[in-house]
Specification:
Chain lengths: 159, 425
């Protein structure tokens, strides 16, 4: 289950990081990253995070590496849905690159869209996820969400 | 404030009066396309169908949401890798057990063309597909976008998907294209204009009086390459051509929606089609597009007319016009892979296949073919009618791919170097 308010240390990346770069835990940008990242860390990226191919290998790697949340200037639409669907919360936060420095501790509140930087005290904001995405995240991803949803005897039409 | 056609289709699918850019909606899907490869076990050890069956079981059923809205196609015939064969085996099992639609053999070809030719795409529909070039279907006035592995399972189980309403970029077409200028040249020009990433998370809408001069085949190319600009979808609002085509290939009615005159666009470009020349995109991005004349003298080893982008009957006719009475340069190979067996049959009937044979081109059966299968050696250069020229797309990373329309591929195969097809008309 992914918590909807995530607090952690950030790793900061630039613009236009595509699926190929993300594969192997950001291997295309920083081959050492997989040894540095710790469970609970937050990934901050620039514009167009996750553009390009949409297979789910690369985002699953991020999740396995323990990345707890992603905040980016902008995220490819399909990539954002994929991240949420595999249970990794990701929000578009215009201006976030200017707000944080490598190593800062921040919080991303996916329910309110608020992104406070705990070092500087500045508060950024993001494009809040829809209700459905929050419910999916609470269950840890779309597949557990679907299983739980129906196991609790709701009908298909209520999805 | 008015709505674009894309916003109207999304609103209807979401059961809302209206939507606006940036809204998240939960939409009902009209059709779901799945390509064979998605059934392989690459992304999950249980495979797509394995995970789906677990989800369905927890719902107390073993049936998908609506079998008649699910279309599967085998994009490679016959399968040539273990992974593909396994994917196809699962695709067939899925279609058999769920009684959904599956195309293969002489009914098939490349899925995106098969979808259109068999009447599964209609104006006003909200279509998703487990393949990135699903955006092709916007050519007939539908909303169509590619979706990922897990969300495909979600749609199979529930028929629903959540997504964000994209802002729109409008291309207003005027004038009439000159000889050897088709959809491919317009879309390469557009990619060159807005650049790689130019349409990320956006809709591309092709409209204006000039669209009347653009055939259905060419519109399919326009929308097919939207994903090369990382757009969510592309759309050509339906007109008389659309209606005539859809009536011919499908049964039943459909919704004719149009963008409102006061709909909002984030960017708008006007294009005089009479000024566009045949375009060629240099490696490694489709947005590296320039007029064909800029590449004069560039030596090639292989020409490829194929893929879901440009291997329809219009493309085969254009190629035949160039190849009639000529021969492919010795030492150069020209491979022609009609997009579907339907296009193959038409080409046969019109005598095009004979022209290709006489020209020493190789005609293959219909599938994705060289689009995803290596055919180049290191250092070799291919000019292709396809959509992607990324590094290593058709061979090792020391090989390269130029993109153009089918006539330019044919002309280049005749001379052995990149050639303006208008010189051979
Ligand atoms: S022809 Fe190429 S781009 Fe089109 S569906 Fe097949 S593999 Fe994908």
């Amino acid at each position: 289950m992914a918590p909807l308010v995530v607090r952690g240390r950030i790793w900061k990346f630039g613009d236009s990081i595509d699926n190929g770069n993300i594969d192997g835990v950001m291997e295309g940008v920083d081959p050492e990253f997989k040894n540095k990242v710790a469970p609970g860390d937050i990934l901050v990226a620039g514009k167009f995070f996750g553009m390009g191919a949409s297979d789910e290998h690369a985002p699953r790697f991020l999740k396995q590496a323990g990345i707890a949340a992603i905040g980016a200037e902008s995220i490819s639409n399909i990539y954002q849905r994929t991240l949420v669907n595999i249970g990794l919360p990701a929000m578009e936060c215009p201006g976030i690159s200017r707000l944080v420095e490598e190593g800062d501790e921040i919080e991303i509140d996916f329910t309110s869209g608020k992104v406070p930087n705990l070092r500087s005290g500045q508060i950024g904001s993001g494009d809040k996820l829809p209700e459905i995405a929050l419910r999916i995240l609470q269950q840890g991803g779309l597949i557990p969400y679907l299983k739980g949803q129906f196991a609790s005897k709701e009908t298909r039409s209520q999805v | 404030m008015g709505m674009t056609i894309t916003e109207k289709i999304i609103a209807r699918a979401a059961g809302k009066e209206r939507v606006k850019v940036g809204d998240f909606v939960n939409a009902g899907v009209d059709k779901l396309y799945i390509k064979d490869l998605r059934f392989s076990k690459k992304e999950d050890a249980k495979g797509l169908y394995g995970v789906l069956l677990e989800v369905l079981q927890s719902m107390g059923t073993d049936r998908v949401w609506d079998a008649k809205r699910i279309i599967t196609n085998l994009d490679e015939q016959p399968a040539r890798t273990d992974r593909r064969a396994e994917g196809q085996d699962m695709a067939r099992k899925f279609a058999r057990e769920q009684q959904s639609i599956l195309y293969e053999g002489a009914e098939g070809g490349i899925g995106h063309n098969v979808m259109v030719e068999h009447g599964h795409v209609k104006p006003g529909e909200f279509i998703v597909g487990a393949d990135s070039h699903t955006c092709t279907y916007g050519a007939l006035g539908s909303f169509a976008t590619g979706i990922g592995f897990t969300e495909t399972i979600g749609v199979l189980a529930t028929g629903k998907i959540w997504l964000k309403v994209p802002p729109a970029i409008r291309f207003e077409l005027t004038g009439k294209p000159g000889p050897c200028v088709v959809g491919k040249d317009i879309v390469l020009w557009a990619a060159g204009k807005i650049g790689y990433e130019g349409a990320i998370n956006r809709t591309l809408e092709y409209t204006g009086p000039g669209i009347n001069e653009v055939s259905i085949e060419s519109r399919l190319t326009l929308c097919n390459m939207a994903v090369e600009m990382i757009a969510v979808n592309a759309i050509v609002p339906p007109d008389d051509r659309t209606v005539a085509y859809v009536r011919e290939v499908s049964e039943g009615g459909f919704d004719i929606l149009q963008s409102d005159p006061d709909a909002q666009y984030e960017q708008a470009y006007t294009v005089d089609l009479s000024k566009i020349e045949p375009q060629v995109a240099a490696p490694e991005y489709p947005a590296n597009a320039h007029p064909v004349g800029d590449f004069r003298g560039m030596k090639i080893h292989q020409g490829f007319i194929g893929t879901c982008t440009n291997a329809r009957i219009e493309d085969l006719r254009m190629a035949a016009d160039i190849l009639r009475g000529r021969k492919v340069q010795p030492g150069i190979r020209l491979i022609i892979t009609p997009a579907s067996f339907e296009a193959h049959r038409l080409a046969e009937k019109e005598g095009l296949l004979e022209i290709f044979r006489q020209a020493d081109a190789t005609v293959t059966s219909s599938e994705c073919g060289l689009c995803v299968r290596p055919s180049l050696a290191a250092g070799e250069v291919c000019i292709s009618s396809g959509n992607r020229n990324y590094r290593g797309r058709m061979g090792p990373k020391e090989s390269s791919v130029f993109l153009s329309n089918a006539a330019t591929v044919a002309a280049s195969a005749v001379t052995g170097e990149i050639t303006d097809p208008r010189e051979l008309l």
